[in-house]
Amino acid sequence: MAEAEVNSYLVLGISLFMLLNSAALTVYAERRIASFIQNRVGPNRVGPFGLFQPLADVVKLLLKEDVTPIHSYRFIHTIAPIIPVVTALMTIAVIPFGEGIYVTDINAGVLYLLAVASLGVYGVTLAGWASNSKYSLLGGLRAAAQMVSYELPLGMALASVVLFVGSLSVVDVAASQEYWWYLFLNPLGAIIFIIAAFAESNRTPFDLVEAEQELVGGFHTEYSSMKFGMFFLAEYMHVVINSMLITTFFFGSYHLPFAGYWLPEMSPLAKAILDVLVFTAKTIFFIFVFIWVRWTIPRFKYNQVMNLGWSKLLPLSILNFFVIAAILFALNAA
């Protein structure tokens, strides 16, 4: 808490439980919000207000036959869905949910996040290749190209935040926003990071990896049962994780706006509860933004996605990094 760190095993258990269940809640929220945006009735059959629809989906996936194409590379085809789920679960280790409320604080937490995020592409790429299907292979190739293209501006946006903090610890990044959120100090970096986070999540308008109208289902065309369910779970887990990362790096993490100037002293328990509630509220807001964008903006063309990443976001992120570095150097020299 404020003076003493909460037991890391307790935080790990609760955060993993919440992350796994948040995927089901996000699926339900997406269906509800989509129905509202499209002026139609959402899930309303399974349970009151359709609340048990995600559970029904899980049961359906568990009972479906697990079909593996006869000409696929069976071992890789089987383990590919596990990779994106594991990378999402690994990310939670360094995210602080409040003052002293985190699993671990490593002095290279930002590098850890970038390294784990880069591993997620292997699951999608291997799934597309191991299926031995042209639609799946095209989806896998698109995934590799898209994720590599947007990891660079995403990494530069995080590097611009590190310049302010002077530390690669994610806990330090969160703690340093008590007075000023990095959204106000680094607005261009925030915009670049949010766009790159959408692309890394393979969400509309960057869902060229699946592209149902073009590639049937993309990399998971040849998947069924819980193997497909794991890809489905991983997508929504990454939506939740990316919402947490946007909150952590640019929107004050668990801090209220300018909290250092006006928030009174509180007991450790009250402060811990407030921190978690603030962090959760911000995360939920960005999950809503992910859903809102999906049902509002149409899919880009592939050349537009590549052009945006390499010709727009990457030069802007590099320029933003050097401008911030120059300003901070001048201020420190003065």
What is the average per-residue confidence, as pLDDT, rounded to a whole number? 88
Q: Note the total helix count.
A: 14
Task: Estimate the global geometry from the Cα principal axes.
Answer: globular
Q: How many domains in all?
A: 1
**Proportion of β residues?**
under 5%
Oligomer category: single chain
Q: What distance separates the N and C termini?
A: 37 Å
- The Cα radius of gyration reads 21 Å
Main sheet overview? none
Helix vs. strand class: mainly alpha
Q: How would you spell out the order of helices and strands?
A: HHHHHHHHHHHHHH
Low-confidence segments, given as residue ranges, are none
Helix content: 55-70%
Number of strands: 0
Summarize the structure.
By secondary structure, the protein is mainly α. It has one domain (8-333).
Question: Would you kindly provide a written description of the structure presented here, covering whatever features stand out?
Answer:
- This protein is an all-alpha fold and 334 residues long.
- The protein has one domain (8-333).
- The protein is 68% helix and 0% strand.
- The chain has helices at 8-37, 53-63, 74-79, 82-91, 109-130, 134-165, 170-175, 182-185, 187-200, 212-215, 225-250, 259-262, 268-294, 302-333.
